[in-house]
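ok, trying the design again with the full structure, not the truncated one.
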């Protein structure tokens, strides 16, 4: 899927991606029975469903803000096989399609530090050293998420690769934030806990218009259903409560929203029919 662009007042916002990967459908939809979720995301013979490795680029005057960086090039070979990763074009190639080079990015926001959201933070240079992929960017990460990634729980330890984030500190490009924070005028990070304790989303506001990237709180358009919560979430009840609080505002104010793993849709809106939240393609 080629990059997609929307205009939100003063901001140009692009949906781009680092490719695709495949995850177990049951894990992605938790307690929802397969006959329900398979109507939306058909599974292969291994019960896996295609997921996008989606990122968002926000262009604002002199700033270029990249949100999440996919799996990147440092992921162990066994993970390529296990998750059937496809990276053509990869994130840097997708940026090139819209005329952006890595050294132009001024901020990188990681919703959290699982490998499929921050793997593209770093790369190997010609000397085979691991360095930040975006040399002029500040990498914005929640302080609590950073501290957790340094000593993760056994349950999700496999999702944290230190090469994806420790070089950011070594090169002086790490910007830790503590809670909801305005990054530039009109662009904010906001705590959206549930998937991890310090998972953050991104909100952009321009005039009366609002855009929100939910990260893994709402990974695909199907996850607008309140009960559609991945078993990867450490705190699923918190995810449900956080989703419900945001969706009411999204419906009332007609927000544009974005998905980090939907293989078809970058953007959409939310409507409400009786007590159900419904995806509206943009």
């Amino acid at each position: 899927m080629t990059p997609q662009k929307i205009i939100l007042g003063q901001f140009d916002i692009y949906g781009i991606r680092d490719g695709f990967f495949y995850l177990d459908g049951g894990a992605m939809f938790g307690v929802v029975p397969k006959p329900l979720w398979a109507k939306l995301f058909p599974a292969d013979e291994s019960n896996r469903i295609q997921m996008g490795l989606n990122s968002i680029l926000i262009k604002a005057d002199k700033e270029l803000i990249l949100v999440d960086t996919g799996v990147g090039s440092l992921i162990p070979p066994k993970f390529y096989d296990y998750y059937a990763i496809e990276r053509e074009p990869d994130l840097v190639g997708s940026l090139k399609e819209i005329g952006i080079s890595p050294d132009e990015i001024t901020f990188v926001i990681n919703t959290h530090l699982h490998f499929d959201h921050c793997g593209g933070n770093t790369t190997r240079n010609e000397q085979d050293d691991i360095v930040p992929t975006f040399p002029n960017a500040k990498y914005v990460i929640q302080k609590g998420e950073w501290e957790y990634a340094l000593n993760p729980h056994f349950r999700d330890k496999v999702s944290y690769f230190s090469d994806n984030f420790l070089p950011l500190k070594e090169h002086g490009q790490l910007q830790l934030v503590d809670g909801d924070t305005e990054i530039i005028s009109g662009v904010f990070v906001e705590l959206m806990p549930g998937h991890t304790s310090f998972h953050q989303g991104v909100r952009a506001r321009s005039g009366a218009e609002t855009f929100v990237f939910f990260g893994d709180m709402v990974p695909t358009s199907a996850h607008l259903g309140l009960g559609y919560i991945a078993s990867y979430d450490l705190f699923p009840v918190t995810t449900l409560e956080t989703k419900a609080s945001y969706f009411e505002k999204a419906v009332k104010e007609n927000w544009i929203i974005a998905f980090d793993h939907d293989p078809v849709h970058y953007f959409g809106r939310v409507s409400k029919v009786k007590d159900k939240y419904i995806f509206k393609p943009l």
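Keeping the full-length input from now on. The helical segments are 25-29, 34-37, 77-82, 91-97, 115-118, 143-150, 166-170, 236-253.
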